[in-house]
Structure formats: structure tokens, C-alpha cells
Write a structure and sequence with these properties.
By secondary structure, this protein is an alpha+beta fold. The chain is built from 16 helices and six strands. It has three domains: 71 residues, no CATH class; 103 residues; 92 residues, no CATH class. It is extended and about 105 Å long. It starts with a helix and ends in a 21-residue tail after the last helix.
Length: 328
């Protein structure tokens, strides 16, 4: 093989050999050339010369047990193509369920990270194509989907105000970005007559993990009045979280969000007098709980002393003896 041909390969290209076959995997396909029937050169594989067999990457899985590359078959390819072309939600949902049930766990993981899945989400979030919330919910409920597969998914769901689907995404999507977190809060807050479902979604959002520096920058973009509304919401949750150990968000999460909001909007809070009563109420709540925890800590110390077992240090030099008095 020529050195210049090897150096011209993309960095993402991988080469495998099994038996009499050479496999070259690029970003979109797997090319196969048999050793016994074709002269093997990298250029013949990459440029699809010498009639190599090329298969889309989504239709390939590597069988570790049999040490070979296996094609998932034309039926799988037909179902994926049919799903991408389908504009009827009921039929598309049927295609998805059939395709999902036919795959093993490892195949499902690969499918959720594939270019096919990215293309599918691109179609499902395209404003020019039919909106299919039921199909999206089915896909998200599979539990393997990352938000990186469809960066626009949360925004599109908010535009359609699909609150049930949004809650499913908040609970099941992996790696929801800090910008999407604040985007959800911005859409949910501002309505004094929020329904129970919207409040439940906010609770789920507050319980999500986040990077503090990234979230602080995003929280600064949240309108001030909505930040104040969120502070009121958190003040009510502060008492509930303190009394219930299994409550979401938990006490630490509520306290962290309060500190985050106060830090991000400190200037606006100081210069806005009508917010000061809320700060007074918040401080009173915190002082009350601080006193309560202080008393509980004293009780905890007493209980530890009572429950502490008595440990007597036995001196190994001490031995039993008896005194006998003799009368002469």
C-alpha cells in the first residue's frame, strides 16, 4: 500500500480485518473487500473502486462472539427509511415500535447515538413537517436518548406547549443543558395561574444536576420578574423540603437555587424596593429553620451521649485476688 494513500485517510476512519475480508469504517458507511477476489488497496476501498460492498453504518453491528461484521438486514433498513418518510403519526409510531422491539439492548444503544436518530429528530422538530408529539414521547421513553441528539427538541416542545411531553423529556432525557433549563423556566413562569402539571415540571427541573458557573450565566438571562416569582416558589418549597426527607427538590437543591438566584440578580434586587418584603419573609423562614436545626443539633448530641456504649478500659496487669484474715 502506498504511504501517501494511508496518510490521506480521515482521522475518524477505522480498519478491521477478519478472515478473508477487510473492513473500512468511515462516518457514514462500512466498506468490505474480500482478500481472495480483489487486490486490496486503501484507495480501492475508500474510493469504492474494485467493486467493494458498501453498507450504511446504521445497518452494521460488530459481533464479538463470531469475530465478524454482521448486516442487520434489509428489513431494518426498510423500516428506518419508512419511518423517516412517514408523515402519519400513528403509522410512524407503529414503525418505531416494531423497529425498537426487534433490536437487542446493544443495538438500541447504538441506534440512539446514530446519524439515523439525529435525522429522525431533525424531521420531528422541523416546523415544515407534521408535528408528532405521541411518537416523540414514545422515543424519549425508551430511556436511551441524549439531548445532544436533538439540541432543538426542548425549544420546539415549548413552542407547542406540550407540557406532558416536556415533563417526560425533563425526567428521562440525559444531559439537559443549562440553557434549556432556563428556557423551560422562562416559559413556565410568568403565569400566576400555573396548573399542577407546570408546577410539577418546575419541581423536576429544580432537581436536575447542573454546572453552577454555566447555570449562573444562564440564570442572569432570566427576566427579573420571573426570577422573583421563582424565589417565591422556592420559599414555599423551603419549608416542605425541610419537613419531608424524600421531597423533590430536596433541601440542598432548594437552598442552592435560592443562593443562585440571589447571586445572579443581586443588583436588581437591591435597587427594587417592592422585592424587599419577599427578602424579609425569606430571611425569617431561614432564621426559623436555623434555630430549629440548632436545637435539633443539641438533642442529637445528647442522644449520642446516651446511646454511646460504656467502654471500660481493662488493665491487663490487674488480677483477681482475695484477702484472708488470720487470727492468732
Amino acid at each position: 500500500m502506498c504511504h501517501h494513500t494511508i496518510s490521506s485517510l480521515p482521522l475518524s476512519t477505522k480498519i478491521y480485518t477478519t478472515g478473508h475480508n477487510l473492513y473500512v469504517v468511515d462516518q457514514h458507511s462500512v466498506s468490505v473487500v474480500q482478500f481472495t477476489t480483489h487486490p486490496v488497496t486503501l484507495s480501492s476501498v475508500i474510493r469504492k473502486q474494485a467493486a467493494p460492498v458498501t453498507t450504511p453504518l446504521e445497518a452494521i453491528y460488530w459481533s464479538a462472539d463470531e469475530n465478524k461484521v454482521c448486516n442487520e438486514g434489509s428489513e431494518s433498513m426498510e423500516s428506518t427509511e419508512a419511518l423517516l418518510r412517514c408523515t402519519n403519526e400513528r403509522q410512524a409510531t407503529k414503525y418505531w415500535e416494531e423497529m425498537w422491539l426487534a433490536k437487542s439492548d446493544s443495538q438500541r444503544h447504538r441506534l440512539c447515538c446514530s446519524t439515523f436518530m439525529r435525522e429522525l429528530f431533525t424531521n420531528l422538530t422541523d416546523s415544515k413537517l407534521p408535528w408528532m408529539p405521541h411518537l416523540l414521547e414514545k422515543i424519549v421513553k425508551s430511556g436511551h436518548i441524549s439531548s445532544s441528539v436533538s439540541p432543538n427538541l426542548i425549544r420546539v416542545i415549548l413552542e407547542h406547549k406540550e407540557w406532558k411531553l416536556l415533563r417526560t423529556c425533563v425526567k428521562l432525557l440525559c444531559d439537559i443543558s443549562e440553557s434549556d433549563v432556563v428556557l423551560c423556566l422562562d416559559s413556565l413562569l410568568g403565569d400566576d395561574l400555573m396548573g399542577n402539571l407546570q408546577e410539577d415540571i418546575i419541581v423536576d427541573i429544580l432537581a436536575l444536576p447542573y454546572t453552577e458557573d454555566l447555570l449562573k450565566n444562564e440564570v442572569r438571562k432570566l427576566p427579573f420578574l420571573k426570577s422573583v416569582q421563582l424565589l417565591k416558589f422556592l420559599r414555599t418549597k423551603l419549608n416542605i423540603s425541610a419537613s419531608l426527607s424524600d421531597c423533590l427538590p430536596d433541601y440542598d437543591q432548594v437552598a442552592s437555587w435560592i443562593g443562585l438566584l440571589l447571586d445572579a440578580h443581586s443588583t436588581s434586587i437591591i435597587t427594587t424596593p417592592h422585592v424587599w418584603p419577599l427578602l424579609t419573609e425569606l430571611q425569617s423562614t431561614i432564621l426559623l429553620q436555623t434555630e430549629l436545626f440548632s436545637e435539633l443539633q443539641k438533642i442529637d448530641v445528647l442522644l449520642n451521649q446516651i446511646n454511646q456504649p460504656c467502654n471500660f478500659n481493662k488493665n491487663s496487669n490487674i488480677f483477681e485476688y482475695s484477702v484472708h484474715r488470720m487470727v492468732l
